[in-house]
Design brief:
- Helices cover 45% and strands 18% of the residues.
- It is an alpha/beta fold.
- The chain folds into two domains: 221 residues, Spore Coat Polysaccharide Biosynthesis Protein SpsA, Chain A (Alpha-Beta Complex), CATH 3.90.550; 81 residues.
- Strands 1, 2, 3, 4, 5, 6, 7, 8 and 9 form a nine-stranded mixed beta sheet that branches.
- Helix 2 links the parallel strand 2 and strand 3.
- The model has no long low-confidence stretch (mean pLDDT 93).
Length: 321
Amino acid sequence: MNYPLVTIGVTCFNAQETIARAITSALEQDWPNIEIVIVDDVSTDGSVAAVNAIIASDRRARLVIHDANTGPAGARNTILEEATGELVVFFDDDDESFPGRVREQVRVLTNFEEQTGATLVACYASGARRYPNGYLKSLPAIGSKGAAVPNGPAVADYLLIYRRKPGWFFGSGTPSCSLMARRSTFDEAGGFDANLRRVEDTDFAIRLALLGGHFIGTSEQLFVQYATNAADKSPERNVEAEQRLAQKNEAYLRSIRRYYYARHWPMLRYWHFKRRYGRFGAELFGLALRNPVAVLGHLLETGPKRMWHERRMREPRVPSP
C-alpha cells in the first residue's frame, strides 16, 4: 500500500497546560508516514518549553516560533509553508485526536477522489466537544451522512446565511481543527486570511466552495475538543469577525440579495448572548421585515437546539462515566 506523507499541523498559543496532550496524540497516530509541524504564535507562558520537552527525542516533529503574533490563520499559513507532506491535517493545541484519525481521513478522502475524480476536496473528522461540567456534545462532520455530498456555492450559502440545500448534511460546519486536504487544495483556495482573528476557517471553506470544492467527512468520531474560555472567543470578537466575513463577501451576497441578512444575523446572536432582549427584538424585526421566510426557518431550525445546548452547558458538573 502507498502511504503518502501527511503533515500534522499543530498551532500553539499559551497552551502549556494542554499542548502536550495534543502533540502526544499526533505522535501516536498509526499512519506510518507523518511529519509534525508545531507553530508557536508568540506564547507568553511555558508553551515553548513544554513543546520542546515532548518532541526532543522524536525526529518526526519540529517547532517553528513566530517573531510576531499572527493569530490562528497566520499560524496555519506557516504550517502550510513548512509542510512537505502531500496532505495536511490540523490538530488544535487543546484537542486530543484518536490514533486512527489520520488513517481514516486519508481513507475517506482518497476513496472519494477515486470514485468521483474530484480534485478540490476538504475532509473533516467527526468528533465531540467536552465542556467543563462534563457535558459532551457530538460534532458530526459535514458530508458524513446522506448520499449527496455538499459542494460548490451552495455550501457558501449555508456558511454565510444558513441556506440549507435539501438532502445535504452540514453537521457541525467547517472547523479547521478537524480538517484534512491536499496541499494543492490549500494553495488553490489561497490558504487562510491572516486579517481574520476568528472565523478564518469559515472564510477558507467559503472560498473553497465558491471554487466548486467538495466537503466530505468521517462518520467515525476521531477527536475530542475541550471547550475553553479565552478573550479571543468573546461575543464581541465573534460578532466583529462574522460581520467582516460578510463584508468580505459583499459582492457575492448582494448578487443573491442576502447582504443585509449576513451582516445582521450575527448581531441577533450577539444580543442574545448579552441578554439585551430589546435590541434582540429590534434586530429580529429588521431581519424579518426583509426576509420573513428565511428568518422563520432559521429560528425554528436553530433556536430550540441552541436553548437546549445552553441549558446543558449550565448544568452542574456531570460525573465522569
